[in-house]
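Quick one, probably user error.
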């Protein structure tokens, strides 16, 4: 029932945009998605299960956006420009999506589903990423995952003699996070990344 699941998550996200999570009703989410309340409970088990799946989906969408930025429009962009694009995506994504901002910073406010605060990104003994309702990343883990993806996607293109790639990716990730915590125009972070990598 993947279509119903996505519809329910979309409806939950829309409801969260209108009112604080504690005031979001499961019946309104189900109605907005065009399914029964029982279908909602069958899919997520509880309101907390719905919240966890919603936060996980938004975190995964953030990481997909990081990968798109790092891949470049045509793949021909210089690695530093691709890192700058990933930093801009981080700042914009956190500014536009309160769930991404909360997961990146650990700052959950009363409007958000605070019962789903961070747990380890991967379960002990598991391999790979958890499913959409699996454990949520702790502050720093989501940014660390973005950094690791940057290293993996840029390693073949990174210029020799430049600063060490993992160090550059870590610096850019932390720089982007500073712009999330102390907001400034997204274009400023790109300019700062270019300056740091020059």
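Nope, works fine. Designed sequence:
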């Amino acid at each position: 029932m993947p279509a119903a699941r996505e519809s329910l998550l979309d409806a939950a996200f829309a409801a969260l945009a209108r009112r604080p999570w504690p005031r979001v009703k499961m019946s309104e989410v189900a109605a907005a998605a065009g399914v029964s309340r029982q279908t909602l409970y069958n899919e997520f088990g509880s309101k907390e299960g719905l919240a966890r799946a919603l936060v996980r989906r938004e975190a995964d969408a953030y990481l997909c956006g990081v990968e798109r930025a790092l891949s470049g429009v045509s793949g021909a962009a210089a690695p530093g420009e691709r890192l700058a694009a990933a930093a801009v995506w981080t700042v914009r994504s956190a500014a536009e999506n309160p769930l991404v901002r909360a997961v990146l910073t650990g700052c959950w406010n009363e409007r958000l589903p605070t019962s789903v605060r961070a747990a380890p990104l991967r379960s002990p003994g598991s391999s790979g990423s958890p499913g959409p309702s699996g454990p949520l990343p702790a502050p720093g883990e989501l940014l660390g995952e973005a950094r690791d993806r940057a290293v993996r996607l840029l390693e073949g293109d990174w210029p020799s003699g430049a600063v060490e790639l993992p160090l550059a990716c870590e610096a850019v990730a932390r720089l982007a996070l500073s712009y999330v915590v102390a907001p400034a125009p997204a274009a400023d972070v790109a300019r700062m990344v270019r300056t740091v990598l020059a």
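The mean pLDDT is 85.
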